[in-house]
Amino acid sequence: MRIWLSILFVLATGSAFGAELTPLRQNGHLGGRIHGIALPDGFRRDLTSGLTNRLMIRLTLHQAARELRGRSIEIAVRYDLWEETFTLTRTVDGASVETAVFKQTQQVIERLQELRLVELFPASSVPADSDVVMRAIVLLNPIDRERMDAIKKWVAQNSKRSSLDPAGALSVGDTSVSNAIFNRIFEQYASGAEAASAWQQTLTTKPFRLNDVPQESR
Q1: Cβ-proximal residues to 126 (8 Å cutoff; 6+ apart), any chain
Q2: Which residues sit opposite 97 in a β-bridge?
Q3: Tens of pLDDT, residue by residue, the chain (218 residues)
Q4: Are residues 112 and 171 in the same domain?
Q5: How many domains does the chain have?
Q6: Do residues 74 and 54 make contact, with C-beta atoms less than 8 angstroms apart?
Q7: Are 177 and 198 in contact (CB under 8 A)?
Q8: Same domain? 27 vs 123
Q9: How far is CA 94 from the centre of its chain?
Q10: Contact by Cβ (8 Å): 89, 96
Q11: What is the edge-to-edge ordering of all strands in the sheet holding 133-140?
Q12: Among 63, 115, 116, 193, which one is least packed by beta carbons within 10 Å?
């Protein structure tokens, strides 16, 4: 069993060098701490665009190759252009669990790079006498299937340059970047994902046992 868990750990952490997922135990529940996510270079600028930025996390608990339990966490950040403040809201499986207001962009980034996702799984539901691993798939501004279908239709309709603009509005570099982003999104979509994103990281803990995770206070 430990061999399977180690293989899962090596495969899943390959795309997120520098970031780390560790288990947390608090108030009779198991959760996770995500540290050091490398957000894209343009994210700081996107935060003040006035649009809502969303970080979606699918956090699952595994025993060998079997998924035991899973939770979906969404962290939404919206910038108020008038108040010049950021409002961060966090939901777990659609239920609101936190709202916080920040005045500076750096405060938001630091918060997202140090996430404590507590009380996700009751400790009684976690095997106490065998190794388990926790896995987190993190998506930035994900696109759901309905929007993906609309984008695929748009791409199909606009795959050729308009005859009204033979020179093309996009440079070769812009076109290649756009194609790379779309290809990455479509790959995730084709693999059966409910949501896809141009930016994604996958993190996995080392194999651990519940009783080895220290209890933390609030």
Answers
A1: 30, 61, 68, 132, 210
A2: none
A3: 443 333 333 334 334 457 899 999 999 999 999 999 988 888 999 999 888 999 989 999 999 888 999 999 999 999 999 999 999 999 999 899 999 999 999 999 999 999 999 999 999 999 988 999 999 999 888 776 666 666 667 666 655 544 444 444 444 444 555 556 566 666 666 666 777 776 888 999 999 999 999 888 76
A4: no
A5: 2
A6: yes
A7: no
A8: yes
A9: 15
A10: yes
A11: 95-102, 85-92, 66-80, 53-63, 133-140, 200-204
A12: 116
Rg (CA), the chain: 20
What backbone phi and psi angles, to 5 degrees, belong to 81?
Answer: -65, -25
d(C-alpha 209, C-alpha 84), whole Å? 45
- What span, in angstroms and rounded, lies between the C-alpha atoms of 93 and 180? 31
133 and 157 share a domain?
A: no
Q: Which residue shows structure tokens 């519940």?
A: 210
What the block records as the tokens of 209 is 């046992």
Q: Which amino acid is at 194?
A: E
Q: Which structure tokens are listed for 35?
A: 């540290």
Domain that holds residue 155: 143-196
Q: φ, ψ for residue 216 (rounded to 5)?
A: -120, 145
